[in-house]
Amino acid sequence: MAGISQSKCSPTDTACICTDKELTAAITECVAVKCTIREALTTQNVSYTTCGAPIRDRSHLVSGFGAGGGAVALIVYFVRIFAKYTVPAATFGYDDLSITIAMALGVVFSVLSLILTKNGYGKDIWTIPFDHITEILKIYYIDEVVYIITVSMTKVAILCFYLRVFPEMYFRRLVLIAMAATIAYMIAFVLVSALQCQPVSLAWTHWDGEHEGHCNNVNAQGWAAAGINISLDVAIIVMPLGLISRLNLHWKKKLQISIMLSVGVFVTIVSILRLDTLFSFAKSSNVSYDGVPFGYWSSIELHVGIICACMPALYSLFKHYFPQVFGGGTVRGKSTKGSTKGSNTGRSSRGASPAIHLDFQKDDNKDNFHPLVDVESIRGDSRPGVAL
Questions:
Q1: Measuring CA to CA, which of 23, 110, 313, 337 is 20 to 30 A from 146?
Q2: In which compartments does the protein localize (predicted)?
């Protein structure tokens, strides 16, 4: 009332009070100094309602990207599993186990997105019931852990795939180092996220300023995790490109495989966009509304990463059914010692598989030379290849 008494507006002139910027600033300052957070939110809600402020709601973005992205990723995952049963040379491995764990957690992430919107995530925080704010932050806390494990297991799945198809020893060492770094990243930041506050419950109750305890610098923690995550993505994308460029393949197949493995570039771009939204999210006092971009970019990154990890299996499946489109054999005249072994033999009794294999061979200059060839060209070789 002190602010109104000093303004040109009468206490009953709602239109004047709502449009007087100096009065609004004075009331805001008074509320910030003398009111609790709960009182401040209640005051803001009454003020906005009285003045007829528009009700903002973008919860559909949270549920849309969460549920929609999860549905697309799940379909692609099932196609991957279908490919494993359909393509004759395909086998199940640790990459399939890793991506299954990632997909299961991706479903959890999608379900939590729907629960978030049900509790008001996507709306201004002063319009949300207090117990719903606590519930939103609790779900967000769980989401942090789920996100870290999911993106990490997706990386592990891709690295396990590399181990299956690239047998060169030096490259396998690089893959194992990258895998160890990914697992270390996952364990470290799961622990940091889970123990970000003492007591732990402060992670979802601190918002009202009425609970004792302390929390880490969550903003710095988020930037550190995102920075390492992007670095690992870049390393995983770049690692196989040199080997692919030297493979004894038709240019068409090299291009197809390079595109297939480089889809991860999009995931890295999404990670960078998510990092940009983290800054806005961290400094906001209206996290339920301002945090929406950070939420849906996290969802996009998570689900696109799963789709990326499934690309090799999809490539094998498409090549199985559309060999004319996804064909392109080895380049003639570039085979190494022993590479013609079985290259002119007939097809197996199961029929020709369009899957891609690695034929383990040696030459006089290298201990191990592993050209990527069509399965049709190695059917007569006694040393079995590895399917994508």
A1: 313
A2: Membrane; Secreted
C-alpha radius of gyration, the chain, whole number:
28
Domain boundary among 301, 321, 341: 321
Helices 37-50, 21-34: inter-axial angle, 10-degree rounding: 160
208 is known to lie in a ligand binding site? no
Written as six digits, the tokens of 44 are 């803001």
Using CB atoms within 10 A of its CB, is residue 169 exposed (0-12), middle (13-18) or buried (19+)?
A: exposed
Residues 185 and 105 in one domain: yes
Summarize pLDDT for 58-70 with one digit per residue, the tens.
999 999 999 999 9
H helix or E strand, kind and range, residue 358: strand 356-358
For the chain, the domain total comes to 2
Q: Which residues, including other chains, have CB under 8 Å from residue 338's CB and lie 6 or more apart?
A: 361, 362, 363
**Could you tell me the pTM of the whole model?**
0.78
Residue 326, φ and ψ in degrees, nearest 5: -105, 20
